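Input (structure):
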């Protein structure tokens, strides 16, 4: 399993607006038949740490690529992504492979 994780670094006063936009993006994903992912909120944001984290699991890179391709060209989705980008100080994207060996 492939895990995509996006960390959003945002000022505290912009956190609620960022959450609204992230939820809107997740709604577009759901409407397109994609998993919405999970929004994670920090209880106490560590110094220099992200305020909001979004993550989603995919079976493989193909499924992850298909998810992105389904929304390209959707004007509302693109506008939401632009609003999200205007709110954050910094964004970090990381990909992980799940250790399924237990």
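Output (sequence):
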């Amino acid at each position: 399993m492939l895990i995509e994780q996006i960390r959003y670094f945002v000022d505290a006063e912009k956190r609620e607006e960022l959450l609204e936009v992230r939820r809107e993006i997740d709604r577009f994903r759901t409407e397109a038949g994609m998993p919405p992912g999970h929004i994670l909120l920090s209880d106490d944001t560590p110094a220099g740490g992200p305020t909001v984290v979004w993550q989603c699991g995919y079976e493989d890179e193909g499924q992850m690529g298909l998810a992105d391709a389904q929304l390209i060209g959707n004007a509302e989705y693109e506008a939401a992504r632009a609003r999200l980008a205007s709110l954050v100080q910094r964004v970090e994207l990381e990909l992980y492979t799940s250790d399924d060996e237990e």
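Notes: The mean pLDDT is 90. The chain has one domain: 2-97.
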